[in-house]
Amino acid sequence: MSQKDGGWGAGPSTRYEELAERFRSIFSEIRATAVERDAERRLPRTEIGWLKEAGFTTLRLDPAAGGHGASLPELFNLLIELSQADSNVTNALRAHFGFTEDVLSSAFPDWRNRWIARIAAGETVGSGVSETGPAKVGQFDTIVRRRGNDWVVDGRKFYTTGSLFADWIHLSAQDEDGTPVIAAVPTRAPGVEIVDDWDGFGQALTASGTARFTGVVLGAELIKPETVRFPYAMAFFQLVHLATLAGIGRAAADDVARLVATRTRIYSHGNGARTADDPQIQAVVGRVRGNAYASGAIVLKAAEAVQRAADALQAGGREAAEPISAIADVEVNQAVTVVTNLVLEATTSLFDALGASAVKEEHGLDRYWRNARTLASHNPRIYRERSVGEFAVNGTRPPREYRVGTT
What we know:
three-stranded mixed sheet, 7 strands, oxidoreductase, flavin adenine dinucleotide binding, Acyl-CoA_DH_C, Acyl-CoA_Oxase/DH_mid-dom, AcylCoA_DH/oxidase_NM_dom_sf
């Protein structure tokens, strides 16, 4: 069924349905075991493998380079559909799509072409940016030291989302003098240990745990020749979370409608001979679905702003892209609280359409709220509202980078 026929609105392009059809059977297979995997804490290695084999991880590459030439609105709409199947899988691929964007935006042809070839070959990249140690804001405890022609990495990262499933880790660190260093670390290199010790109550299957680096030797070609990311990186990474939330909303809407349609027990003080005919129950289902619909529409509108920033970068370079990227940040930040509130409400109120049996583990409905609440806790949304207000009142652009650490 097309997205439009399902009542979720038309896709972001005339060719979107053709592009999406290549992956929808995989999305369906992923969703079929989502409840079971969540209950058993079974990591989605196989499911991510299916997506890699189908070329999902090459979406943003040009067809001539082995990809699909997807626009950013097309990418984000596909991430909504993937998240409707399992939000864990989308989150596990977030760093990969961000790294891909970084590669496509690089001003260094050797680096860009080398990584385009690797991504086209199906290789994927996980995250190695955040730390939970005593490093101050803007600094890292992970150190990359030059040793002759090579570099040696020592340190520890947390929130290494997706790295356990990936071929590479996108590492942010610093050298012995405190200068920023960005590197690509093979996940199977001697001295790399990735541990699935993420114990959050949501997004439990993303392998967002610890990565340790002990004397890991890297060739010079694995050190990124620039230490800046693509100008619209903040908007891009946050919008992946919002697309994931929108997908959770759709999945919750689908499940509550399905369970209401098949429910045979009614209440004596209800409004119909069948639960499916009870207008109060129908209103709850409609509210959940409306929240999900609005969330998806907002994500696609914000994706247009991110696409404008990407186009400006390709046409005029970083200087031309900076002001447009700042506006993309504003648009995404404006969406953060609205989308999170819509989805958190939807994943809570869906239970009002069902009886007490809806909380049984076999349905797995609690995972929608748990996953949404976990995603909504990233990059605190209260600061997004404040930055939007500051822009509206004083014309101040949002911060170009977010970092966490001690004072």
